[in-house]
Amino acid sequence: MPDQTAKELRKYEKSLPISLLRAREATTRYFKPYIDRHDLTMPQWRVLRALAEEEGLDARTLSERCVILPPSLTRIFRSLTQRGLISQVDCSDARRHRVTLTDTGRALFVEVLEESEPDYQRLAAAFGPERLESLLNLLSELRDTVEDLNAEDAQDAAEPRRKLAAAR
């Protein structure tokens, strides 16, 4: 017989991380053919997508915005640079690596966007444009809430160390 704690857990299907992962996977599968058609990976596409909105982003910003670890981002930069899709931008701080889309990169971005837009509109219509907008807003709020809780937890964990250091 399962213990009491297992009984109190919410059902697997109602697990927030699992629900988010399943929604991500389904959405990715829906749009992935457009990325594959242009011999891109999803992380490479996220970098191109982020650079299309803002000129000359640094590696740290792209890492955070695209949810890509720095070592992977370095490989992505190398690949996209070799394909002529991005180029390095001069930066006053030599320690920072800033990149921007090239004309070829921007043209590829526009091409993928134009190809995928009808399916995006189809998804929005099927789900409901207002519901999709609401979902996007709720997901941003959820991310902000979890980040705030993580920051509070980190601060709480650091407090005993601060007290110990102050007592010395």
In short:
It comes from Roseinatronobacter domitianus. The protein is mostly helical and 168 residues long. It has helices at residues 4-8, 16-36, 42-53, 59-66, 70-82, 103-127, 129-167, and strands spanning 57-58, 86-89, 98-101.
Secondary structure layout:
Layout: H1 4-8, H2 16-36, H3 42-53, E1 57-58, H4 59-66, H5 70-82, E2 86-89, E3 98-101, H6 103-127, H7 129-167
Antiparallel strand pairs: 1-3, 2-3
Question: Could you list some keywords that capture this structure?
Answer:
single chain, 168 residues, mainly alpha, 3-stranded antiparallel beta sheet, 7 helices, 3 strands, flat, Homoprotocatechuate degradation operon regulator HpaR, MarR/SlyA-like, HTH_MarR-typ, WH_DNA-bd_sf
Description:
- There is one protein chain.
- The protein is mostly helical and 168 residues long.
- The protein has helices at residues 4-8, 16-36, 42-53, 59-66, 70-82, 103-127, 129-167; strands at 57-58, 86-89, 98-101.
- A 3-stranded antiparallel β-sheet has the order 1-3-2.
- Helix 2 (16-36) crosses helix 6 (103-127) and helix 6 packs across helix 7 (129-167).
- The protein is flat.
- The mean pLDDT is 89.
- InterPro entries: HpaR/FarR, HTH_MarR-typ, MarR/SlyA-like, WH-like_DNA-bd_sf, WH_DNA-bd_sf.
- This is Homoprotocatechuate degradation operon regulator HpaR.
- Residues 13-144 form the HTH marR-type domain.
